[in-house]
Amino acid sequence: MRSKIVAGNWKMNKNLAETEALLSELSAKLPNTEAEVMVAPTFVNLTGAISNLEGSTIEVIAQNMHFAKSGAYTGEISAGMLVNIGIDTVIIGHSERRAYFGETDEILEKKVTAALENNLKVMFCFGEELEDRKSGNHFNVVKSQLKNALFSLNKSAWGNIILAYEPVWAIGTGETASPEQAQEMHAFIRKTITEAYDATVAENVSILYGGSVKPGNAVEIFSKPDVDGGLIGGASLVADDFVAIIKAI
Ligand SMILES: O=C(CO)COP(=O)(O)O
């Protein structure tokens, strides 16, 4: 059975004091929920966040990692380093990493492999650009993103994969995929995984939707059968909004 997940990707926002304040507010307001709740603060605030959340059900996850074990990669963080401070899950493939930091499918495949070798769960992000959707090429783009980075994995590795479909045109723009567009793509993703593996793998993987999810649209998006939760950017930085989105599951 796949899990419901609501994750907040805080991107490059909040210093340590702000991180702790937001987490304390979130903890105090956290509703009873069947969803797994995750937050991804910046690297420098991961340890502080873990301490702040001791005893809480909120999981602290990382936004990125490097594929190498260690070495001369100035400014980078390895999977082993994340595990060492108590991280269990890492986001890989966010469209901002692809767009601003040149992360290709090939690099992402290496990152996924390194994460899994270190027993990290991977929240793998992917999604088409506006031109792809306009030209009707969005299904092909999504299929090739999945194939290039993930389809060399063994079937058993899929137990440690969470997918986050984030159409680039909906990220931070206020423009959301309609619930129907999200459902259509999520069903396509499951079909693609069934073809590459089998129906059991496809049915058991959680597929989150990300891109301008807000308290006002979350209920409708989450009500779709193939949408298992959300990866939330801007709205996860405001405790009341994030809590409202968690309640929408
Ligand atoms: O990129 C996102 C989450 O990873 C989505 O960001 P917004 O919710 O701000 O559109």
What do these coordinates show?
This protein is an alpha/beta fold. The protein has one domain: TIM Barrel, CATH 3.20.20. It has eleven helices and eight strands. It has an eight-stranded parallel sheet. Helix 10 (215-222) links the parallel strand 7 and strand 8 (229-232). Helix 5 packs across helix 7 and helix 10 runs parallel beside helix 11 (239-247). The longest helix has 18 residues, at 179-196. The chain is globular and about 45 Å long. The mean pLDDT is 97. The chain binds 1,3-dihydroxyacetonephosphate (13P). 1,3-dihydroxyacetonephosphate binds at residues 9, 94, 166, 171-172, 210-213, 231-235.
Q: Give the topology string: H per helix, E per strand.
A: EHEHEHEHHEHHEHHEHEH
Helix share, percent: 40-55%
The count of helical stretches stands at: 11
What is the end-to-end distance? 16 Å
Q: State which percent range the strand residues make up.
A: 5-15%
Our count of domains comes out at: 1
Question: What ligands does this structure carry?
Answer: 1,3-dihydroxyacetonephosphate
- CATH C-level label: Alpha Beta
Family: Belongs to the triosephosphate isomerase family.
Pathway: Carbohydrate biosynthesis; gluconeogenesis; Carbohydrate degradation; glycolysis; D-glyceraldehyde 3-phosphate from glycerone phosphate: step 1/1
Binding site for substrate: 9-11, 172, 212, 233-234
Main location: cytoplasm
